[in-house]
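User: For a benchmark we're assembling, each entry needs the component sequences followed by a predicted structure for the full assembly. Here are entry 17's components. Please fill in the structure.
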Amino acid sequence: MSDLGSWRFDTRAIAAGRPHAPGAPMNHPPELVSTYRMGGERIYLRDEGGTLWAAFEEALGSLEGGAAVAFASGMAAVRAVLAGVPLGGVVVAPTDCYSGTVGLLDDGAASGRYRPRYVEVTATERVLAACEGAALLWLESPTNPLIEIADLRALCAGARDLGVPVAVDNTFASPVLQRPLELGAAYAVHSVTKLIGGHSDLMMGAAVARDAEAAARLAHRRELEGGIPGALEAFLALRGLRTLPLRVERAQANAAELAPRLAGHPEVERVRYPGLPDDPGHRLAAEQMAGFGTMMSFDLVGDAARADAFCEALRLITPTTSLGGVETTLERRGRHRGQEHLPPSLIRMSVGCEAVEDLWADLDRALGATA
Ligand SMILES: *Cc1c(COP(=O)(O)O)cnc(C)c1O
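Assistant: Structure for entry 17:
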């Protein structure tokens, strides 16, 4: 679409990837197809994707400022980017990182596929020292679930000097708030399952590459490894993407209201949200993000059992492990195997788009009921 480059971000979210031939439907319908009649540019869905997939990729690519490739899940996208690491290559990754990514790296480490090197992502100099001789620097910011902020610009610049490509898992921020490719990363990776899908009703992923050649390699991985999303998922993800800026704006406003109230609550030990002026990530987040986001964590007074009771006592907010929907959801992260390093009463909350006073009433009542 020729006007795409001249449109602003919010317009691109709505208009990119839209059919524009005379008589075309307003939106690409779910395209139930596995194969195409010979003679055209497409042959088989897993090889080239279809027009609906291409529309989603055009839209997400225009938001991130690169070339997007859609995958069947966030992990399939993570896997495709890691496939570029040579056998036995060092991958530098944050200690506080999505558990699936750590699981994949550790699983690969056992067979010698990767050599992961875990680092405290807020310690920029130490991260760069670990990048010496590495094949890839994997970053998350804000991190899951401690909501720490990495200095993406400094890390990308330092890694470039060392010749190390950088991939940023941008799931928690979304391109509305943070665009890693503009900050110097080679890849931005998404669990589309979360904010981009936005309604807890689909599973999908995407990797966005700064250069077209890298994107072609990702698409080739998808062809060989089979991680193409289904038609209904691609349809719902593009539909979700249309309202991403609106949903993030509203959910973020709710988060900004809830964070200081939780921080002032006698049953809350500590709130981790970069929007709080005394949060360790506040200054950096203000510089590199367009807002402080929709994700926060808080430690309750008391032990793990109390935190579990709190989650169960909520009536509006739903305890779930997933995040990024219009629905506010939360969970005690320490309940998962491999997350024993976290404070046992740490609750990670994904703030949604409900009326904020209803959210506060639910939190305040459950905190009081389990005190
Ligand atoms: C959920 C998630 C993933 C994995 O995505 P799936 O869609 O569940 O495969 C990767 N990174 C982050 C930060 C996530 O929250």
